[in-house]
């Protein structure tokens, strides 16, 4: 079975594939190419999923932004260099959604813990039920008989990427038509998406299922799919006709943000992780640079791991020959050795939001303290500015976008 590019061969759109090369240079090149389309073009075309050979409707910048090979601030600055804020507002809002999800989950940390518990429980149920496991295997292998869903499954596994609209349709079909646990779907995405982000992915799946915005769900409709794939798919009679919201017993309390300011001077080892591959803001002239990548987890696809590894390696090269990147499970030994060679007991790294890297850094921090070393996580100024506004729904943050753009210095208050 191969990816059915021929489905989109006759569409009236210029071919435009995107090669997701894990380098800052490639990300900047894609940003330069798409910047002129972040205005009216994006606003009118962004919902059309025309397949992997027709990516001109969207920026496809998410893999580079996710790992901050390029930053949100750079994207906003270049967007507003060629468009008025009003013309580019749809695109600007999409950039801010990423920061909203990160900030919201950081201030509701029990959501991530609850997802982990739910995923564990869902896997246990699969192991106990032949029928449930068969349904799950049919879904992740693209054998449901729903052509659009099966195609997106294959596209994801082949390319490591899906159009955002397809992600919404996919999640809705998974939850309401196939009636599979949302946690398993979120996990499937994280294992295959090269732009997979714990906050954006978890909260997007919760939003589709009616857990993030209580009672508000997203129903994939055949007519919508037919319209925005320009007739490539039309699953009439195959999809659920209603989307009753999921429920949960647990509440997720708000936890205020607290960050310790990093040291302003002194020698340091700079640690680069997949969470921020442009970390010069944390330490412009480190004694040495070390990049660390976790080994590929069992069941995870090769593409996301290869992109993470390449991104960290590229980040390290930005500091010259002194830097190096390692793929290892034992971060403690690697950091202690690098710090000793660099002649410092102080390690700086970009702040890691909730997720596997944050968990790894927490463990690393405890181990380093025992060894007489200190790990400081430096919060990027963009996040420090944005996250305090991500306490409730996106609308609250949306109202603050003009203020944030002005404070970032990427837009003149007079034009907003």
TrEMBL record:
<feature type="binding site">
    <location>
        <begin position="94"/>
        <end position="101"/>
    </location>
    <ligand>
        <name>FAD</name>
    </ligand>
</feature>
<dbReference type="InterPro" id="IPR005101">
    <property type="entry name" value="Cryptochr/Photolyase_FAD-bd"/>
</dbReference>
<feature type="binding site">
    <location>
        <begin position="195"/>
        <end position="197"/>
    </location>
    <ligand>
        <name>FAD</name>
    </ligand>
</feature>
<feature type="domain" description="Cryptochrome/DNA photolyase FAD-binding">
    <location>
        <begin position="91"/>
        <end position="237"/>
    </location>
</feature>
<feature type="binding site">
    <location>
        <position position="42"/>
    </location>
    <ligand>
        <name>FAD</name>
    </ligand>
</feature>
<keyword id="KW-0285">Flavoprotein</keyword>
<dbReference type="InterPro" id="IPR036134">
    <property type="entry name" value="Crypto/Photolyase_FAD-like_sf"/>
</dbReference>
<dbReference type="InterPro" id="IPR002081">
    <property type="entry name" value="Cryptochrome/DNA_photolyase_1"/>
</dbReference>
<protein>
    <submittedName>
        <fullName>DNA photolyase</fullName>
    </submittedName>
</protein>
<dbReference type="Pfam" id="PF03441">
    <property type="entry name" value="FAD_binding_7"/>
</dbReference>
<keyword id="KW-0274">FAD</keyword>
<dbReference type="GO" id="GO:0071949">
    <property type="term" value="F:FAD binding"/>
</dbReference>
<feature type="binding site">
    <location>
        <begin position="57"/>
        <end position="62"/>
    </location>
    <ligand>
        <name>FAD</name>
    </ligand>
</feature>
<dbReference type="GO" id="GO:0003904">
    <property type="term" value="F:deoxyribodipyrimidine photo-lyase activity"/>
</dbReference>
<dbReference type="GO" id="GO:0003677">
    <property type="term" value="F:DNA binding"/>
</dbReference>
<feature type="binding site">
    <location>
        <position position="91"/>
    </location>
    <ligand>
        <name>FAD</name>
    </ligand>
</feature>
């Amino acid at each position: 079975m191969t990816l059915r590019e021929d489905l989109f061969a006759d569409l009236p759109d210029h071919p435009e594939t995107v090669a997701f090369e894990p380098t800052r240079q490639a990300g900047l090149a894609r940003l330069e190419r798409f910047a002129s389309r972040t205005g009216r073009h994006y606003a009118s075309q962004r919902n059309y999923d025309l397949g992997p050979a027709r990516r001109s409707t969207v920026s496809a910048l998410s893999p580079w932004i996710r790992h901050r090979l390029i930053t949100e601030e750079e994207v906003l600055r270049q967007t507003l260099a060629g468009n008025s804020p009003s013309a580019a507002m749809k695109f600007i809002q999409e950039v801010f959604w990423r920061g909203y999800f990160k900030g919201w989950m950081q201030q509701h940390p029990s959501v991530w813990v609850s997802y982990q518990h739910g995923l564990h429980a869902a896997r246990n149920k699969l192991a106990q039920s032949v029928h449930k496991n068969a349904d799950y295997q049919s879904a992740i292998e693209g054998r449901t008989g729903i052509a659009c869903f099966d195609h997106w499954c294959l596209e994801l596994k082949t390319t490591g990427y899906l159009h955002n609209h397809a992600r919404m349709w996919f999640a809705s079909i998974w939850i309401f038509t196939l009636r599979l646990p949302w946690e398993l779907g979120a996990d499937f995405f994280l294992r295959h998406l090269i732009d997979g982000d714990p906050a954006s992915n978890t909260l997007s799946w919760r939003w589709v299922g009616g857990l993030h915005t209580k009672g508000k769900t997203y129903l994939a409709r055949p007519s919508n799919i037919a319209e925005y794939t320009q007739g490539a798919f039309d699953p009439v009679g195959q999809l659920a006709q209603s989307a009753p919201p999921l429920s949960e017993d647990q509440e997720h309390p708000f936890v205020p943000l607290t960050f310790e300011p990093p040291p302003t001077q002194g020698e340091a080892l700079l640690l680069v992780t997949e969470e921020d591959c442009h970390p010069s803001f944390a330490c412009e002239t480190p004694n040495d640079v070390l990049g660390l990548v976790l080994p590929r987890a069992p069941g995870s696809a090769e593409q996301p791991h290869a992109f993470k590894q390449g991104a960290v390696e590229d980040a390290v090269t930005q500091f010259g020959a002194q830097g190096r990147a390692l793929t290892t499970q034992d971060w403690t030994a690697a950091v202690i050795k690098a710090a000793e060679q660099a002649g410092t007991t102080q390690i700086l790294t970009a702040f890691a939001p909730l997720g596997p890297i944050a968990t790894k850094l927490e463990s690393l921090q405890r181990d380093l303290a025992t060894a007489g070393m200190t790990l400081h996580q430096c919060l990027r100024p963009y996040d420090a500015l944005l996250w305090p506004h991500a306490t409730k729904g996106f609308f609250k943050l949306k109202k603050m976008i003009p203020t944030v753009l002005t404070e970032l210095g990427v837009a003149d208050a007079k034009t907003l």
